[in-house]
Amino acid sequence: MTQVSTPHPERLTIGELAARSGLAPSALRYYEEQGLIAAERTSGGQRRYARNVLRRIAFVRAAQRVGLTLEEARVALDRLPSERAPHAGEWARVATTWQHRIDEQIAELLTLRENLSGCIGCGCLSLRTCRIYNPDDAARAGGPGARYLLGDDHVAGN
Fold first, then answer.
1. Which parts of the sequence belong to the HTH merR-type domain (predicted)?
2. CB 48 within 8 A of CB 8
3. Average pLDDT over residues 147-151
């Protein structure tokens, strides 16, 4: 929520926040639109950010690195206090919600690593291999994408 306030020495301008976070001001404004961070407004309409916003931005960037969407990051941030920096226990509770998602990604990466040298079903563009594992493009019945990599059986039609 945007509030109007008088400048506070502990508040950061959008330029200062951009410099400290490594994000462009346009990205910070977008994060604000998405409800990931919040700014107060001066009487002149300028944004001012509490220092704890830096931690929220770091959290969002970490979430993106593990494949979470901005919406998923926002939902997680909604579980944290916005008026102060969360303590270690609060961060830990939110981080545990990522555990299942990270485990799924690890499993997908392991599957990819195991199947990368063979047919990853279909999309591999190997006509010779596809004639063996996916005759007549039977894997397409499973839907779009690399069906075998998504967990479909390696023998089409089974």
1. 11-79
2. yes
3. 68
* Residue 4, φ and ψ in degrees, nearest 5: -95, 130
- The answer to whether 119 and 133 are in contact (CB under 8 A) is yes
For 2, what's the count of Cα atoms within 13 Å in the CB-facing half-sphere? 11
Backbone angles phi, psi at 85, to 5 degrees: -75, 130
| Domains of the chain, earliest start first | 3-98 (1.10.1660.10), 117-158 (no CATH)
CA distance linking residue 75 with residue 80, whole number of Å: 9
pTM, two decimals, is: 0.63
Q: How confident is the model at residue 16 (pLDDT cuts 50, 70, 90)?
A: very high
Decide: helix, strand or coil at residue 11: strand
* Residue 155 scores a pLDDT above 80: no
Residue type, 5: S
Q: Kindly report the backbone phi and psi dihedral angles of residue 151, in degrees, each rounded to the nearest multiple of 5, phi listed first.
A: 110, 0
The encoded tokens of residue 119 equal 């047919």
SS3 of residue 27 by DSSP: helix
pLDDT at 158: 46
pLDDT tens for each residue of 47-56: 999 998 998 9
No. of helices (H) and no. of strands (E), the chain? 7, 4
